[in-house]
Amino acid sequence: MTQLPLSGKTIVVTRPRSQSGALATGIRHAGGEAYCFPLLEILPCPDSPSLLEAANRLANAKLAIFVSANAVRYAMPALRAIWPEHLLAAATGPGTANALAAAGISRYLLPVMRFDSEGLLALPELAEDKVAGQEIFIFKGEGGRKLLTTTLTERGATVFPVSVYRRDPPKKGSNEFFALLADCRFDAITLSSSEALRNLLELAAGYPKTLPGLYSLPFFTSHPRIAGHARKAGFTRVICTGANDTGLLAGLSAYNWRLS
């Protein structure tokens, strides 16, 4: 019988708990064990004037950008009923686009070459001659990158960033995770955001004896920027896969585990 590609492997899934199911299931179907250790907790922002203002001004806007599926999840309940027929949405990647489609938004922009802010800004629809003098809303999490806001403002648009969710560090599970790490129970870690990486490093500082084991693990991420941050932090076995869960599963399944 052919052995499944992840047989005998335990893979750490660090997505927020509500978003880890598909990847964990895929790992199990490939014969592995998924250990869920959420490095971020996604919570809605308290009701704020900015979201109410966005709902009131949306009819004047040219474009509404959603930086993640979480942005769709937390913004659309306030926007869907008053969504103008002319308004074009934009997603930074397929997961966000799928969330828009599930919310009933069928017209949206999607990057072609890379799924991030840079990819979105490279689209001809966001060129200076197309956005100058236009109102653009960006639905996002608290903090995060300001590239979209800064660049579109420089291109002459009036930009309204609207924070609709926040990312909190994990509140429990660290003792168990680092005990298992010290016992060499993990074969790889998956990362889906730079903030998750920062949280992991901050947590690891409290468990210094586990650092050699942590840095020896292969790290799988679906985005070059996150891979770059991991390498800069000192991780040497960083594997950048295709986009989203599909890419991560393909990368995990194709990895030469004899290198471990």
Explain this structure to me?
The structure is a single chain. The protein contains 12 helices and 11 strands. By secondary structure, it is an alpha/beta fold. The strands form 2 sheets. Strands 3-8-7-4-5-6 form a 6-stranded mixed beta sheet. The protein has a 5-stranded parallel beta sheet with strand order 2-1-9-10-11, sandwiched between helices. Helix 3 packs parallel to helix 4.
Layout of SSEs?
Elements: E1 10-13, H1 21-29, E2 33-36, E3 41-44, H2 49-57, E4 63-66, H3 69-79, E5 88-91, H4 94-102, E6 108-109, H5 117-121, H6 128-131, E7 135-141, H7 147-154, E8 158-168, H8 174-182, E9 188-191, H9 194-204, H10 211-216, E10 219-221, H11 224-232, E11 238-240, H12 244-254
Parallel strand pairs: 1-2, 1-9, 4-5, 4-7, 5-6, 7-8, 9-10, 10-11
Antiparallel strand pairs: 3-8
Helix pairs in contact: 1-12, 3-4
Give the count of helical stretches: 12
Low-confidence stretches: none
Shape: elongated
Q: Beta-strand percentage?
A: 15-25%
In N-to-C order, the SSE pattern is EHEEHEHEHEHHEHEHEHHEHEH
Total beta strands = 11
Please give the share of residues in helix: 25-40%
Q: Would you tell me the overall average pLDDT?
A: 93
Spatial separation of the terminal alpha carbons: 24 Å
Order of the strands making up the biggest sheet: 3-8-7-4-5-6
Secondary structure class reads alpha/beta
Biggest sheet features = 6 strands, mixed
Rg on CA atoms, Å: 20 Å
Q: What are the defining features of this structure?
A:
6-stranded mixed sheet; alpha/beta; elongated; 260 residues; 11 strands; 5-stranded parallel sheet
